[in-house]
Write a structure and sequence with these properties.
InterPro entries: HNH, HNH_nuc. The structure is a single chain. This protein is of the alpha+beta class and about 300 residues long. The protein contains ten helices and twelve strands. It folds into three domains: about 15-135, no CATH class; about 140-190, no CATH class; about 195-310, Trna Endonuclease, Chain: A, domain 1 (3-Layer(aba) Sandwich), CATH 3.40.1350.10. Strands 5-6-7-9-10-12 form a six-stranded mixed beta sheet. Strands 1-2 form a two-stranded antiparallel ribbon. The chain binds zinc ion. Zinc ion binds next to strand 2 and helix 2.
Length: about 300
Amino acid sequence: MEYIRKQRWANYLSPKCKEYLRNDFSHECAYCKLQEQEVGIVGLDFFEIDHFKPQSLNLPDTHKYHNLYYSCEKCNNEKSDIWDTKLLDPCTDDIFSGINPAIIGGKKENHYKYIAKNDRGTFYINTFKLNSRTQIRFRKARENHENSLHTINTLIDEILLKFQHNAELHDLKDLIFQLDNLRHLKQQELDKLPKDEMFEKAEEYLNDKGIENSLVFEEYNIDFKMKFNGSTYYCELLVDNSLEEKTEYRKNISVEKLTTWFEKLNSNFGILFYYPRINRMYFYPVSNNMTLPEITDGKKIRQIKINDKCLL
Ligand SMILES: [Zn+2]
């Protein structure tokens, strides 16, 4: 399989859905592997939410998160309403990787063409037109980029090894270390991709208040990790676009979600409740206010009442 899906309580209409998908699918198209960085500044807009089993089938689960895939505009259009059980699923089948990939090639030695190993591979290549000129151009550019990076890495490793025992060349050594640091910045490139506006604003709010935080996109709708009163909390972000603050806010949290949080998160957790239009954010530390037995002990708490919230 190409991707491991995370568990999320989201669906097609959830405002956070696309941001969850792009993170769970590593900022690339689930079908053709085109990366956001490869389409430049328009990256985010060129990617869409695809229904794996198309909406035209009218299935009850069609808008549920597990049926939604991050897809480039091109693949989403090519796939359209096509449905066939032959279609390989990037979340369950070995397509380009794994023990028995259905599709191989795509490298220089095959002139960047993909080669199907079975019927399903052929069907997949044809559905997404993976051997089209555009797709081949992208694969060629990607391989060239990866090769240059590989060459740079090998060279730096060699040079570092030579300098290890030679103290006289100290200045040059510093320079090489700077280069070495530079190549490790690659991972941080992902952080620089534009995020959904609501996450950017929430991040900004927390930074302005001097609250240590990071956007994590962990499983189970955990969006932020943040320090509060000396403890670290994992938080879900909820946004209310009202122009006025509600005097009392009730948020339904399903028993399933609460028990999952208690059972799976070995940490404090809570909810960040944010009014972007009036620029106010509250924190509700859920784990401080209830325990697992309270939920599972037949009481079935379906609502948590956010009244002892803290204004951040
Ligand atoms: Zn694609």
